[in-house]
Amino acid sequence: MTTIRKLAGQTAIYGISSIAGRFLNYLLVPFYTRIFSAQEYGVVSELFAYSAFLMVLFTYGMETSFFHFSEKSNNKNQVFSTGVISLILTSVLLAGLMLGFSDSIAGWIQHPRHPEYVRWFALILFFDTAAALPFASLRQQNKAGKFATVKICNILINIFFNIFFLVICPAFAGDRGALGDFILAIYSPSVGVGYVFVSNLIASVITLLLLVPEFRKIRFHFDRFLLKQMLLYGLPLVFAGFAGMINETLDRAVYKYLAPDSNIAMKELGIYSACYKLSIIMTLFIQTFRFAAEPFFFSQQGTENNRELYARVMKYFVIACSVIFIAVILFLNVFKLFIGEKFHSGLAVVPVLLLANMFLGIYYNLSIWYKLTGQTRFGAYFSLTGAVITIVLLFVLIPRMGYMGAAWTTLICYASMMALSYATGQKNYPVPYDLPRIFTYILLALLIYFAHYGLLRLLKPGAWTENIIGALLFLAFIAFIMITEKPRLSKSNAEQYEEK
Predict the structure, then answer these.
(1) Which of 12, 95, 179, 488 could make a disulfide contact with 126, Cβ separation 3.0–4.6 Å?
(2) C-alpha to C-alpha distance for 273 and 266, rounded to whole angstroms
(3) Tens-place pLDDT, residues 68-85
(4) Using CB atoms within 10 A of its CB, is residue 274 exposed (0-12), middle (13-18) or buried (19+)?
(5) pLDDT tens, 288-323?
(6) Would you kindly state where each structural domain of the chain is located, as residue ranges?
(7) Half-sphere exposure of 324 (CA within 13 A, CB side)
(8) Number of C-beta neighbours around residue 138 at 10 A
(9) Element at 65 (helix H, strand E)
(10) Integer Cα distance of 11 and 86 in angstroms
């Protein structure tokens, strides 16, 4: 339990800062969904989906390679230096190609009048790639405080410039005098949603400047043999990363090409993307857990009873995800206020996407076995299988079901990957997961969801009554967990190990 408490502490440090930062960033969602039309918000979602694919290409698995080889090397600075130099050289090349062919690329993605979008994203990707290993180094050194500070600064800067360009500038652009002249010199109403990307670019530049002290570790000694090893370890993760991006973002990248009605495709994409954000709490927890868990799992690799530890971590992770699922579903009438009313027609996707993200989080926990054993090719196999499922189902379901088809595709994909990783992992690196309890918590969460849905359909209560019903069901779920887990928490590690 001491080791698990250490992981919990690290997760809390990353989590509190990330939750605080992401909550601030999350405030942009109600902001965007109230100043942009659904179609305009669809453009924002589509272009960030493209950038997610490109970020995998720009970083090519170097972060995980850095963690792996830092644990094995006596010269961590050399690992860091080799990785950073490699990333900067390749990102200069890739960003340069995007800048040089921005007009053609804008035409390919059906935004021919806005090649500047491509140019801005080329620069964003360059600066974010340059910052990738400094951030990873902070995690590897357990400098959660500094990591969190820089991340929050990035978000605050992004929010500030969004408000500046989208609210302050339009309000004062017509004023006479020095202020009006200044604003007119830097602001053009025709840019519109483009200021979302400009704000992101400014935040990326300033973030890299904040990380400059981390670059002092670079000795400009480029170890070609080490780089080759890092690439061999990390390149399978590139395929896994691309496949993962297909699973996570392809629905938004291709929706306008597959939608039942092309005339309203971008509007529907905006609605779907906004409602997708309501699963942010689940996604946020998973991300903050991964920040702490990945280096933690590597550090426990050679310890006694480490597999029993991994199993217990999984159970507590599922409990946390189940609580989040229940909380959002039971109080959806409150959570929906975070997005504009014109986006509420897509709320039916929220339960499906929450469950999908829970399965993705479980998959991340399960997949640690192939990273610990160096069999990273399995990550590519699982993600590629998921990618095939995603591509096939998107082409089948979106034309028939619209964005509900995209949501169900996400759920089926992640459930399949989870099952594959578990079955293969138990053959290659068996971990004694407590499946009966894990299934119990997930199934109980689903039963509560269906019971809540049925009660609302039957009683048609007002908002306050609905919240009371939700609170009672939520408390019942928490009580069940506490009653079930209390006897096990009171046992010593040795007793639990003998019991197994």
Answers:
(1) 95
(2) 10
(3) 887 776 777 888 888 888
(4) buried
(5) 777 667 767 776 666 667 788 888 889 999 999 999
(6) 1-25+236-495, 36-222
(7) 24
(8) 20
(9) helix 62-72
(10) 30
